[in-house]
Structure formats: C-alpha cells, structure tokens
Write a structure and sequence with these properties.
Structural class: alpha/beta
Order of helices and strands: EEEEEHEHEHHEHEHHEHEHHH
Number of strands: 11
Largest sheet: 7 strands, mixed
Distance between the termini: 26 Å
Oligomer: single chain
Radius of gyration: 20 Å
Length: 354
C-alpha cells in the first residue's frame, strides 16, 4: 500500500511535494462487531484536510473536507472508487471494506481555519465519500469538524446518505445561527429492491427521508439530491413520480436530479454488477455511455424535465441561490428534447456530486 505518493494542496497545507500522510503514522485496526465485521480501518494522521477542487471539475464549489477515504455504503456506482487506486487499494470490494480514517481531521481543520491564508470560503463535505458512513459512529470526527466551522463562522454544506447526521443536530443548529449551513440528503429512488442491491450499506431511502423531515422540523432546511437516477432501472415515469412524491412529503426544500455517471474505476465495478444482476441491460448501457462517463445530454435533459415537472406538481422545486444548500445548480432546459438524438442547443450540465 502506498501512503507517501499523495501530495497536499498548497492552500492551507504543506508544500506540494509533501505527502498527505506517511507510513509511520498508519495504524490498522479491525473490530469484531456486527456493524464492522469484514471492514479494516487504516487510521492516519493527515497533514492537510482542506482540499481544493481541481479547476477542471464540474463541482459547484472550490473547497472540500473529507475525513474518510473508502466507504462502507458500498454503492456500486460510487465515482470515488478510483481514488482507492492511488493507494494501491482495490477499487471494488477494497473500496467498500478498507477505510482510511483521518483521525486528526478536527484539530487539523481548526488550525487551518485559523491560518491567515484562509479567507472563509465555503467548504463542502460528503461530496467524495460519505462523512456519515458507519465509521463515523465509532470515530466521531464530524462533531469536532462542525464545531470548528461554527467557531470560525465558516459557511459549509453536507451531502449524506447517512442517518447519523441527526446525532449532530444541536451542533448544526448552533452553526446555522452564525453562518450559512446547507444540508442535502441523497435519495435517488425509493424502489426497495433496487436499493438493496445497488446501495447495500446505506440506510433505506425512507429512513433518509425521515432525516429530511427531522431537520426541517428543527428549522434546518434540507434539500434532496435525487441521485443517481439509474437508466432503465430507476427512470420509469412511475418510479420518478413515486420518488418525487416521497421527497415532497418529507418537507424537502428542493429536489435536484442527477443522472448516473460512470467514471473509470466505478464503471468497471458497476458493469460487473450489471452483468450479474441485469445482463440484458449490458449492451444498452454500452450504447448509452459509449461517449464517456456521462449519459447523453438529451437523456439528462429528459430526466431533468420530468423531475422538475413532478416537483412543481408536488410543490417543490430545484435548488436555487438562497436556498439552504447555498450552491447554485443549473436550471432545466425549457423545451422538450428529441427522443432519438441529442439536441444542438446547450442544456444543463451534469454535476459530479455522486
């Protein structure tokens, strides 16, 4: 396993040629408890925790904090799988079961926020792997992270599939009194059978919507990232309607659909899963994603239009500037897209949040 080959961003961190953590700081642990059986934790002391998003990224924010690498949610489509290969770790089962824990994340973040080089920019969390995955129940890194952001009145957002975020409800309320706090919960579909096979380590969709309801009841607006919409498995009009209806019933402030994208690392793992569970769809996926990681624009626009029309029907809308997440997302295309070929007019850009 390689630890020294990862380098830090110069903003708020060590020099560019310094490793994020060195091998002599790594402690490997396993826990023989039902929730952690089969999972190995690599505890490291990171040298930098605030990361700059690459300029070429489609992310609508510039800075992130990721206290974990790898994710026991085991979502077969997770785009972050490729990052495990940087440590010579497997991007399939290894990504699901070999979890890197940056145990000093809260203290490091507090130090970096106090640096004169830091100017209080928005920090996004949960956009690589989930900061409220099962490991957080043991390591409890997020309370210290949120407290540091609160104490520095630094705006932040959290995207999660985890119900554990409710443990930190009081801290989130305190932070929201002094800065902009945005919470989004990821619920791409409410189909139980699909959830059990494609997101086996996550709480059920209805439990995630309970999180939205609870946060809203406590005065913290919460949007839903309807992601991913999975072609041919979760995109039937009746499925989209059921999901948007459930999102509306939860009291979500917004719903924003994102179609499945398949980057290298995730693509191979997802296609192997598809071959096993839905072999009749393999050729259709090969055609749909023939041009790369993203579905064709005409397909993205169609899903976006359908979801936004349903959202309007049920009284909710896409995330917009000023809403709780504080991230501006693209507006849907006004005109319907042709069914057989991609339109020539520019349309909304697919974001890479999941």
């Amino acid at each position: 396993m390689r630890w020294e080959n990862l380098t830090a961003d110069p903003a708020g961190g060590p020099a560019r040629d310094a490793a994020l953590f060195s091998a002599d700081t790594v402690t490997t642990r396993t826990f023989d408890t039902p929730e952690f059986r089969g999972i190995t934790f690599h505890e490291v002391r990171a040298r930098s925790i605030v990361n700059r998003v690459p300029g070429a990224s489609r992310m609508p924010f510039e800075w992130t904090v990721n206290p974990y690498r790898g994710c026991s949610h085991a979502c077969v489509y997770c785009f972050a799988r490729k990052t495990h290969s940087y440590l010579d770790l497997d991007t399939g089962l290894g990504f699901d079961s070999q979890i890197v824990v940056k145990v000093n994340a809260p203290e490091l973040l507090r130090r970096q926020l106090a640096s004169p080089r830091w100017h209080g920019e928005h920090i996004a969390m949960g956009t690589n792997v989930d900061c409220y995955q099962r490991a957080e129940g043991r390591y409890r890194l997020m309370p210290g992270i949120i407290a540091a952001l609160r104490d520095h009145a630094n705006p932040f957002s959290i995207l999660t599939k985890g119900t554990l975020v409710l443990r930190d409800l009081d801290l989130l309320k305190q932070a929201s009194e002094v800065t902009d706090v945005g919470i989004s919960v990821s619920v791409g579909f409410t189909d139980t059978e699909l959830w059990r096979t494609v997101e086996p380590g996550t709480p059920a969709p209805e439990r995630r919507l309970d999180v939205v309801r609870t946060l809203t009841d406590h005065g913290i607006g919460c949007g839903v990232l309807m992601a991913p919409v999975i072609p041919f498995l979760g995109d039937h009009p009746a499925q989209l309607r059921a999901t948007v209806q459930a999102v509306a019933a939860s009291g979500a402030t917004s719903v924003t659909p994102l179609v499945l994208h398949l980057r290298p690392g995730a693509r191979e793992w997802f296609m192997a899963w598809l071959e096993h569970h839905h072999p009749y769809l393999v050729r259709r996926y090969e055609r749909l994603y023939a041009e790369g990681a993203y579905a064709p624009k005409w397909y993205q626009r169609r899903i976006t239009r359908q979801v936004h029309e349903l959202a309007q029907e049920y009284g909710i809308g896409p995330a917009r500037a000023g809403m709780p997440r504080r991230i501006t997302l693209p507006e849907p295309a006004a005109a319907p897209a042709p069914a057989a070929q991609a339109p020539t007019a520019p349309g909304p850009t697919q974001l890479t949040l999941l």
